[in-house]
Amino acid sequence: MPTKSVWPKLVGPALLIGLPLVAGIAVTTAKARLKQEAVAQALTGGNPALAPPIFRRYGCGGCHTIAGIPGADGKVGGPLAGLSEQVYIGGVVNNNSDNLVVWIVSPQRFSANSAMPATGVKESEARHLAAYLYAH
Ligand code: HEC
Fold it and tell me: If you take atom 30 of ligand 1, which residue's CA is the nearest one?
């Protein structure tokens, strides 16, 4: 039995391989996020970075859990994560950026009995919200 452990000798090589690997994954993830944000921006004409205060102003987070928005943990409506992968909005209309903006401004345009109220959000603001929702 060797008296000294071999583990200290492995730490150097492990760091040598592990650190660039972790850094590489972080860069790839960051690039993917930037790309998704750029696509969301192009689709909606909105800017995801402007969305958080608008979500707060119109109380979206009181009814929805919204990824990345502190305090947005409502359970009245479903969570608004991964919306870009959904086929329908509110289960009634095709999921595309124009319909999403209309839905956010006035859900009753598509779904007369929807429990989601028209919050008073303006179309220009709804574009920023739609951009955020497609980016997250
Ligand atoms: C009073 C509660 C309430 C508020 C406030 C509210 N919503 Fe909703 N929302 C709902 C409910 C309930 C649904 C599900 C309605 C339906 O399917 O008809 C919904 C559905 C949605 C959907 C469709 C989700 C899906 O999975 O298809 C989106 C997008 C959405 N809301 C965004 C927002 C945004 C953005 C705001 C803020 C401007 C907001 N909501 C404010 C209750 C609310």
Answer: 104
